[in-house]
Amino acid sequence: MNAIECKNLTHYYGKKLVFENLSFNVKEGSILGLLGKNGTGKTTTINILNGFLQPQSGECLIYGENSQNLSPQNKARIGFLIEGHIQYTFMNIHQIEKFYSKFYPKWDNEPYWHLMSKLQVSPKQKISNMSCGQRSQVALGLILAQDPDLLILDDFSMGLDPGYRRLFIDYLREYAKEKKKTIFTTSHIIQDMERLIDDLLIMDFNRVLAQRSVKSFMQEFKQFHLELENPDIDISNEEFVVNSEKVNNKLELYTYESEEKVLNFLKNNGVVHKNFRQVEMGLEDAFIGLTGKY
């Protein structure tokens, strides 16, 4: 069963098209990461899901209901973390936990205080005196304590240093899998997503570039390096080439094709080369290879 079903979403800001006929599903119990460069519609998608924004056409269903008109019962099943992590900054972390707990019948403060212990802050720590990254984790802890079935998180690791990011990502994945939670999330830090997500949706301007499991994407999308004898040869427009970058005679080639098929193409078309090799990639390398550096 799907926790989220978005069908044929189209949205503009003025005359600028953000995306057209965007469709995707998020399975219950899975963690899906929405990846894209700045301005490709990640936060717009989040705002449509949380009902802040009405798309020009199409719809998003959350547990079978339109995200623009969710029932109180379904709203109670969803935890939202929006970009900016707005909170009552005059409170300390003990006061804000007590304040929020009155609104949620299923409130469980254990994950909240677990996260606070990892931040190594005292219960009397004022939120106004915390860093941006610490505030984001207070917001995340308050969401986990609501015990939602679905977490929709926009840049939840914003402002955290690398050590804290890894700690919280590992905690969040362990929490979600143990509690069978569903997560839909965005992040500008691709290394974070590689440790967290099961499935990915990579967006470019006005289109979807990839929508599949992380495992299958990393197995099927490949990077090859080679040196051309003739640096003027250009194969960037060949059908099997997803992306490429050439500096002098050195070529980086990104494709879903196998090494054998690429080598056969080069041989059959008389492309003389040397030092051909496949390069192992992390998710960030693959993301840049798919979307381009610029």
TrEMBL record:
InterPro entries found in the cross-reference section: AAA+_ATPase, ABC_transporter-like_ATP-bd, P-loop_NTPase
Bilayer-spanning residue ranges: none
Iron as UniProt keyword: no
Residue ranges occupied by any ABC transporter domain in the UniProt entry: 4-230
Pfam family of the protein (one): ABC_tran
Domain of life: Bacteria
Nucleotide-binding recorded as keyword: yes
UniProt GO molecular function: ATP binding; ATP hydrolysis activity
PROSITE patterns assigned: ABC_TRANSPORTER_2
Coiled coil: none
SUPFAM superfamilies linked: P-loop containing nucleoside triphosphate hydrolases
Record key words, sorted: ATP-binding, Nucleotide-binding
PANTHER family xrefs: ABC TRANSPORTER ATP-BINDING PROTEIN YTRB, SKFA PEPTIDE EXPORT ATP-BINDING PROTEIN SKFE
Protein name: ABC transporter ATP-binding protein
Organism name: Draconibacterium sediminis
